Amino acid sequence: MAAPRSFTWTRRVFLTLLTGFVLLPVYVMVSSSLKPLEDVSSQFHWLPSGLTVRPYIDIWSTVPLAKYFMNSLIVAGAATVCSVVIAVFAAYAVSRYEFRGKRVFSVTVLSTQMFPGILFLLPLFLIYVNIGNATGIALFGSRGGLILTYLTFSLPFSIWMLIGYFDSVPRDLDEAALVDGCGPLRALFKVVVPAAIPGIVAVAVYAFMTAWGEVLFASVMTNDATRTLAVGLQGYSTQNDVYWNQIMAASLVVSVPVVAGFLLLQRYLVAGLTAGAVK
User: Fold this and answer.
1) Which label site among 4, 33, 176, 208 has the fewest CB atoms less than 10 Å from its CB?
2) What is the C-alpha separation between 100 and 94, in angstroms, rounded?
3) What CATH number does the domain located at 62-275 have?
4) What is the DSSP letter of 32?
5) Do 36 and 245 contact (CB within 8 A), yes or no?
6) What are the backbone angles phi and psi of residue 3, rounded to the nearest 5°?
7) At what angle do helices 143-168 and 266-275 cross, to 10 degrees?
8) Beta-strand (E) ranges in the chain?
9) Using 50, 70 and 90 to split pLDDT, how confident is the model at 70?
């Protein structure tokens, strides 16, 4: 049965407006990043009078963007790897084994998502400073401390999501592997993990995107040597001027890894987010 013409036209109009709403800011960013600073600072024009790629060259010298980029890559990559590895073991244990406190653990993991992240800022700051004073381990202002900080809010969601996905993987696969002589760990890596690749990819993308664009904790827990991209973009704004064209150019450059990763892994991400919902 064909849809009514009114519904078809309504859908087209709605999707057109939604597309324009999404693409309009992107167009403003791209056009502003290709304008000289004088044109960006003056009255805004939809069609640029002149185009230049100079902002994409100057962004690397105005602030140490390469260092910020490397810091973000190290922190986000390490947080993603740690989150995925720990979440796989924890979710597999909850999904496949019965132990005392299992329900309490599951509820606790899920309940951490109810609290806003800013509530953990001051406690983590005090913990890191006290650990540094007592042991000499510099967590505050270091990449390691920032990685641990990101694990506090990416790991609970990763565990909760993988529990649902592992529950959707038939237990018969585990039992068949055990019958064939595999141990629990070998069954996990040889059977369960390959079947759960979409869910693991979804968790990895979530953890990476969370760490890559986070601003609040990075602005407090880092210094000049460990500053990440999301905080480093503030360097394009000085007391005398704001380099709007470089801000737009740097924002586009910063977005490339996340957008590229999302497009490459989109198929796995969608499958991982939906598969665990139906059993």
Assistant:
1) 4
2) 11
3) 1.10.3720.10
4) H
5) yes
6) -70, 150
7) 60
8) none
9) very high
